[in-house]
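Propose amino acids for all 209 sites.
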């Protein structure tokens, strides 16, 4: 995958008209919204916020050095380089999504930081699986509090038993996160530190698209 294509997959935080975070999209979709004048770029610089339409943002992007120092990414077009925004604001949308944090494999891996909750080791996703703490064979169901990230080896060792029956101890008790865990992981990267204010001041659930 080329750097340009990879950068177009970069995450961009989307705010609604009232400056409340609603979701995370990718740079490709963000540029589409900007070109259609559906959204504006929100640039955060030392705690100050400024809004820019697509044309203005494109012109500012020619002064690449100031953006490079703030850990922005960019993509090259036929005419010029475009700086990928970190945050955009929808100009005509003032609603919040109603969905909660989705219970899926990606979010459980993110919640548990890709650490096996039995041996405590970090694994690539290809070597991870999901474990029902109370096995399905014993009436366990798929819920946030009954699913944990588990390596293939520990999963096989535990089998259809509870941790107590298998003499295995959970490192952390599973829980339902209030915020999409994948977002929390991204906030550990300084590149997305400017998202923090919008995440801290909202009561919402965010869905990755």
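Proposal:
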């Amino acid at each position: 995958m080329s750097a340009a294509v990879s950068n177009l997959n970069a995450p961009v935080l989307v705010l609604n008209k009232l400056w409340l975070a609603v979701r995370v999209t990718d740079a490709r979709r963000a540029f589409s919204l900007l070109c259609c004048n559906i959204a504006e770029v929100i640039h955060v610089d030392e705690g100050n916020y400024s809004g820019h339409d697509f044309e203005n943002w494109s012109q500012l992007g020619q002064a690449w050095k100031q953006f490079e120092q703030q850990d922005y990414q960019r993509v090259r077009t036929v005419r010029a380089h475009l700086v990928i925004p970190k945050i955009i604001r929808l100009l005509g949308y003032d609603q919040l999504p109603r969905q909660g944090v989705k219970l899926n494999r990606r979010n459980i891996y993110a919640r548990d930081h890709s650490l096996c909750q039995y041996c405590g080791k970090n694994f690539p996703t290809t070597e991870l699986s999901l474990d029902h703490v109370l096995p399905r064979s014993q009436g366990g169901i798929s819920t946030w509090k009954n699913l944990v990230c588990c390596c293939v080896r520990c999963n096989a060792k535990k089998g259809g038993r509870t941790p107590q029956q298998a003499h295995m101890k959970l490192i952390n008790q599973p829980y339902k996160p209030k915020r999409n865990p994948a977002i929390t992981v991204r906030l550990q990267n300084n590149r997305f530190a400017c998202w923090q204010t919008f995440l801290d001041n909202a009561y919402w659930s965010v869905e990755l698209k």
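Residues 202-209 have pLDDT under 50 and may be disordered. Residues 27-35 form the longest helix (9 residues).
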